[in-house]
Amino acid sequence: MQAVLPIVVALIAGLCVAVQAPTNATLARASSSLWLAASISFLGGTAAVLAIWALIDRTPIAAARQAPPWAWVGGLYGAFFVAAVSFATPRLGLAVTLTLTIAAQLTAAVVLDHFGMLGLERNAITLTKLIGLALMVAGVLLVRR
């Protein structure tokens, strides 16, 4: 069961990304503001995460001081992702937008793993992984057609 839970959580997260993109794009289109839509999205997410932290976790804020400086900017990546996907989805379509972002994510993940960057354990690039990445790029091209 322990091995299944992370897989189920990751699959649900992927579904959430697929639903989040058109949701935020609709809000951006309705408000005529990509940045207002992204702000509303993050305010809702922040409120939910803070509520869960306050009700369940309650780890002292001071505990985060031990993290390296680069660990404090993760929200900036998420903010850019939300804004970029909200912008790209109505122009490229959801499938193309998400295949592009997934291909970029997997490519970055293989490089980060290979070099053990950002606190990850080293996990070497293999021929199998390179073939997988090539198939992802082929998938992007096929979905784009």
TrEMBL record:
InterPro entries: YdcZ (IPR006750). It comes from the Bacteria. Pfam families: DMT_YdcZ. The keyword Transmembrane applies. The chain crosses the membrane at residues 34-56, 68-88, 94-112, 124-143. Keywords: Membrane, Transmembrane, Transmembrane helix. This is DMT family transporter. It comes from Sphingomonas agrestis.
